[in-house]
């Protein structure tokens, strides 16, 4: 017996892989920030926020753009904000959840 051929999905989720990487970095951020990896966390999160914002533009889901613009500015490594304490610790997993939601919801129709 041969397996029936699967129908390919009519959508592709370009933002899924970068959002998973960003979410993993943000979930590990409390450990990484205390061990001298703060610059790496800021670079990864801000660059992936810009990339996912671009995928949102391509998918014509403009409402994601201000969210990822804000994340790119807050986590920007060039002029970092002096955030610390409980607010910064809570912001990391909240941003990770935003990345995961965007990765699941930003999709475009396959050509």
Average pLDDT metric: 91
Structural class: mainly alpha
Bin the strand percentage.
under 5%
Shape: elongated
Number of distinct helices? 4
How many domains, as an integer?
A: 1
Largest sheet: 2 strands, antiparallel
Detail the poorly predicted runs.
Answer: none
User: How large, in whole angstroms, is the Cα Rg?
Assistant: 16 Å
- Strand segment tally: 2
CA(first)-CA(last) distance: 32 Å
* Main sheet strand line-up: 1-2
Order of helices and strands: EHHHHE
Q: In which range does the helix fraction lie?
A: 55-70%
Transmembrane segments: 15-33, 39-57, 62-79, 85-106
Pfam family, one: DUF6804
Keywords: Membrane, Transmembrane, Transmembrane helix
Question: Mind sketching the topology for me?
Answer:
Layout: E1 11-12, H1 16-34, H2 38-58, H3 64-74, H4 85-105, E2 108-109
Antiparallel strand pairs: 1-2
Helix pairs in contact: 1-2, 1-4, 2-3
Transmembrane segments: 15-33, 39-57, 62-79, 85-106
Keywords: Membrane, Transmembrane, Transmembrane helix
InterPro entries: DUF6804 (IPR046548)
Q: Could you walk me through the main structural features you see in this protein, from its secondary elements to its overall organization?
A:
The chain has 111 residues and is mainly alpha-helical. It has one domain. It has four helices and two strands. It has a two-stranded antiparallel sheet. The longest helix has 21 residues. The chain is elongated and about 60 Å long. The mean pLDDT is 91.
Name the features.
DUF6804; 4 helices; mainly alpha; transmembrane helix; two-stranded antiparallel sheet; 111 residues; transmembrane
